[in-house]
Design a protein that fits this description.
Layout lengths: L2 E6 L9 H17 L2 E8 L3 H8 L4 E6 L8 H16 L3 E5 L2 H14 L2 E12 L2 E8 L4 E5 L6 E5 L14 E4 L31 E5 L9 H11 L2 E4 L1 H5 L20 E5 L5 H7 L4 E6 L12 E4 L2 H16 L1
Length: 325
């Protein structure tokens, strides 16, 4: 019987990262298709909250209390603990989120175990040959499907490609010992900087208002921000707007930015090129405002408004504020 492991990522405050709930949900579907055992691995200085959170999604979580993770970069410490565990358990597939910590962990774990890595997966299915990993390449213009030549490996999964769904019944948590000795130097964390924001992180936002090249410049994003505030949503942007320096990279949506999955995506002055589509096509409802009726976004938007965003936007803002009042 094979095994699939899901690695839990802790947030800065010691809770389970949202991306790990998505990866755990994916792990359940792969376990069901393959018949392989499914195990969660939680490593932290105090892994209690992370392990209990992950157990809402998986039948079994192995919890490793590792004091060396306190005040040091999590990925290097966790990878060594997981590698020691893998030497005994030999998992066939290791899943982790494709966030900064997950990517770091996958690299260190690959070096320690010799397992290959398929990165930034936008989908994973199970076939007779094992895991079939779908990845978006060439700026989102192509999708490739790859597997591991040895049948075993590590997959990093992009955020928002799976909708997190807890298990009908919570699983159990078992404490296990960590590595006896660590060979890699621990990287000390000197400071943590949390970006100030009035809304939820863009990856978790239920409503996103995005601006593209059509907003004309940084001043044009004032309208985008006003609409986002009126809707209780977050502000996003296309790569063109970010590359122009009109808005920070942290708000870029697309193949080289964030993948989002809101209930409503309002696109202002965005053409909808494939690179941007990759990042927001999972939205439940897409509303686009563009002067060009032939813009690519017209092909997949649920509602396409042909017009000047600086006429449509303010009119929409007036209506929203009237309803709120």
């Amino acid at each position: 019987m094979g095994a699939i492991w899901v690695i839990a990522e802790p947030t800065g405050n010691g809770e389970l990262a949202n991306i790990s709930t998505e990866v755990a949900t994916l792990g359940r579907s792969l376990s069901s298709a393959s018949g392989y055992d499914l195990v969660g691995i939680a490593v932290a200085a105090d892994p209690a909250a992370v392990a209990v959170g992950l157990a809402r999604y998986l039948p079994l979580v192995r919890s490793i209390a590792e004091p060396r993770a306190d005040g040091h970069a999590w990925a290097t410490v966790a990878a060594q603990a997981i590698a020691a565990l893998a030497a005994e358990g030999s998992p066939d597939l290791i899943l982790v989120g494709a966030g900064p910590d997950g990517r770091d962990l996958a690299g260190v774990l690959s070096a320690l175990t010799g397992l290959g890595v398929l990165a930034n997966a936008v989908g994973v299915a199970w076939t007779d040959g094992g895991a079939a990993v779908e990845m978006s390449v060439f700026g989102g213009k192509l999708l490739t499907t790859s597997g591991f030549t040895s049948g075993r490996g590590i997959v990093t999964v992009r955020p928002n490609v799976v909708t997190a769904e807890p298990s009908p019944a919570a699983g159990s948590v078992t404490a296990v010992a960590g590595a006896a000795a660590y060979d890699l130097p621990a990287v000390r964390v000197l400071d943590r900087v949390v970006e100030a924001t009035a809304a939820a992180p863009i990856e978790e936002a239920r409503i996103i208002v995005s601006g593209g090249r059509g907003v004309g410049g940084p001043d044009g994003f004032a309208l985008v921000r006003d609409l986002a505030a009126a809707l209780g949503g977050a502000v996003g942007a296309s790569r063109a707007a970010v590359d122009s320096g009109w808005i920070p990279y942290a708000q870029q949506i697309g193949q080289t930015g964030k993948i989002v999955k809101p209930q409503l995506y309002l696109a202002l002055g965005i053409s909808g090129a494939i690179q941007h589509k990759v990042g927001m096509q999972g939205a439940e409802t897409i509303v686009a405002v563009n002067r060009d009726p032939d813009a690519p976004i017209a092909e997949f938007a649920d509602v396409m408004v042909i017009g000047d965003l600086f006429e449509v936007g303010p009119a929409l803002l007036v209506e929203l504020r009237a309803r709120a009042g």
